[in-house]
Design a protein that fits this description.
The complex is a heterodimer of chains A (about 190) and B (about 190). With about 190 residues, chain A is an alpha+beta fold. Chain A is built from four helices and ten strands, in the order αββββββαβαββαβ. Chain A has a single domain, classed as Sandwich (Immunoglobulin-like), CATH 2.60.40. Chain B has helices at about 1-25, 50-60, 170, and strands spanning about 30-35, 35-40, 70-75, 90-95, 100-105, 120-125, 135-140, 150, 155-165, 180-185. Classes of the chains: A alpha+beta (about 190), B alpha+beta (about 190).
C-alpha cells in the first residue's frame, strides 16, 4: 500500500476512534451521573433498607441541600431507589393533600418514563408494581400476579432506577409538619 | 512505533472526550428562548436525544417531562448582561398560564443561596403580588415595595422559572411563554 493510502487509512481510523469515544462519552454521562445520584441521595440510615429498594424522606429543601443541582424549595420530596434485577417492587402512596403532588419514575439514563399527579390520580391511591419486562412468559406471570394483588403494573425500562414523590408546599412555615406527614405516605417494598 | 500508537490513541481520546464535553457543556441544541429565559424542551422526556439527556444530567437532573413541568433558566438580564447576586433586578410580567409557577434564585453553583429566613422563591401563593402579575425584586437586601428574593453574596446568579402543569400552549411550545422581563433596578458594576 502506498504511503499516501496508509496515511489516509490512519486518518480515517483516528476519526472513527475519536467519534466512537465522543458517542460513548455522551451516552455514558447521564448513566454515570444517575448512578452517582442514586448512591448519594439515600443515606446509610435510610428508612427502609432492602436488596431491592431503599427509601428516604429528606427534610424540606434548604441551602444545605447539595446532592442534586437546582433543588426546588417549594416541594417536599420522598424517594425510593430500586433495583428490579432480583424481582418487582411494590409502591404505595395514599395522599390526602390539598395541592399538587406527583410520583415520577426515572430510568438509569435519567428518563422520566412514568408520572402520575394528583389530578390524574383523583381519589385513587397509587398502588403500583414495578417490574422488568423479561420475556413474554415471565411478563404474563408478572401481570397476573399484579392483577391478583390489585396493583397497576408499570414496566421499567432499566433494572435500576429512582422514584421521586413531589408534594407542593405553598407555605413552608405553616405546612412543614403536614408535608412531613404526607412524605411518609410513600412506601416502597420488595414485592412478595 | 509504540510511541506513535500511543499518540494515535491518546489524541483520539482527548479529542473524543473534549468534543463531547464542549457540545454538552456549551452547545445550545434542543433549547428555546423566551426573552432572557431559556428552556431545554425535552428535559426529562423519554424522547430526549443523547445530547439533551447529557445536558440535563449535568444541569437539571430529575426534571419532569414537559407534560408535567416546564423549566426556564435565566443567566442574563434583558439587556444581555450576566446576572450578579450583588446587583438588584426587577422581574415583571404577566403571570404564566400554569397551575403553579415559581421563580427561584440560585447561585452560579446551581444551589440555593444561604438565607436565614428560607426565602428561596416567589410563587403564585406569595402575598403582595398583584392579581395575574409577577412582580418581584432580587438583591442582597430588601428595598422598596413588592416581594423580595434575597441573593446574598457576590456570585453569579441564576433565576429558574418553573411552571407546574402549564397551559396547553406552553406545553406544546415552550417558546409561547410571554417572557418575564428582567431589568436592572439600579446601575451595578
Amino acid at each position: 500500500m502506498s504511503p499516501v493510502l496508509v496515511r489516509l487509512r490512519n486518518c480515517l481510523l483516528w476519526l472513527l476512534l475519536a467519534t466512537a469515544i465522543h458517542g460513548l462519552a455522551v451516552w455514558a454521562l447521564p448513566r454515570v451521573v444517575m448512578r452517582g445520584a442514586m448512591s448519594r441521595l439515600v443515606p446509610a440510615n435510610n428508612a427502609v433498607k432492602d436488596a431491592r429498594v431503599r427509601v428516604f424522606y429528606p427534610p424540606l429543601t434548604t441551602a444545605t441541600a447539595r446532592q442534586i443541582v437546582l433543588p426546588s424549595p417549594d416541594l417536599a420530596y420522598a424517594l425510593c431507589v430500586y433495583d428490579l434485577s432480583t424481582g418487582p417492587v411494590d409502591v404505595d402512596a395514599a395522599l390526602d393533600w390539598p395541592g399538587y403532588w406527583s410520583v415520577a419514575l426515572y430510568a438509569d439514563n435519567t428518563d422520566n418514563y412514568f408520572v402520575r399527579n394528583d389530578r390524574v390520580a383523583g381519589a385513587r391511591p397509587v398502588r403500583w408494581r414495578l417490574a422488568l419486562h423479561e420475556g413474554a412468559d415471565t411478563a404474563a406471570a408478572t401481570s397476573r400476579a399484579a392483577a391478583a394483588a390489585g396493583r397497576e403494573l408499570v414496566w421499567a425500562p432499566s433494572a435500576r432506577g429512582l422514584l421521586l414523590m413531589r408534594v407542593l408546599v405553598a407555605d413552608r412555615h405553616r405546612e412543614a409538619a403536614a408535608a412531613a406527614q404526607a412524605q411518609r405516605e410513600l412506601r416502597c417494598v420488595a414485592a412478595p | 512505533m509504540f510511541l506513535s500508537r500511543c499518540f494515535f490513541g491518546l489524541s483520539a481520546l482527548v479529542v473524543g472526550l473534549g468534543s463531547a464535553w464542549c457540545v454538552v457543556r456549551f452547545g445550545g441544541g434542543g433549547t428555546i428562548a423566551a426573552g432572557a429565559w431559556q428552556s431545554t424542551v425535552l428535559a426529562g422526556s423519554i424522547h430526549a436525544d443523547p445530547y439533551t439527556r447529557a445536558r440535563v444530567a449535568l444541569g437539571g437532573l430529575l426534571a419532569l417531562g414537559p407534560e408535567e413541568t416546564v423549566y426556564y433558566v435565566a443567566t442574563t438580564d434583558d439587556a444581555g448582561s450576566p446576572l450578579r447576586a450583588h446587583c438588584r433586578y426587577r422581574v415583571t410580567g404577566p403571570a404564566p398560564t400554569a397551575r403553579w409557577w415559581s421563580v427561584t434564585a440560585y447561585a452560579d453553583d446551581r444551589f440555593l443561596f444561604a438565607e436565614a429566613e428560607h426565602r428561596y422563591s416567589i410563587n403564585n401563593a406569595t402575598p403582595g403580588l398583584p392579581a395575574g402579575q409577577v412582580m418581584l425584586v432580587t438583591g442582597p437586601t430588601a428595598r422598596g415595595a413588592g416581594p423580595w428574593l434575597p441573593t446574598p453574596g457576590d456570585s453569579g446568579l441564576l433565576l429558574v422559572l418553573r411552571l407546574y402543569q402549564p397551559g396547553p400552549e406552553i406545553r406544546a411550545n415552550a417558546a409561547a411563554l410571554v417572557p418575564l422581563r428582567i431589568q436592572a433596578a439600579e446601575p451595578c458594576q
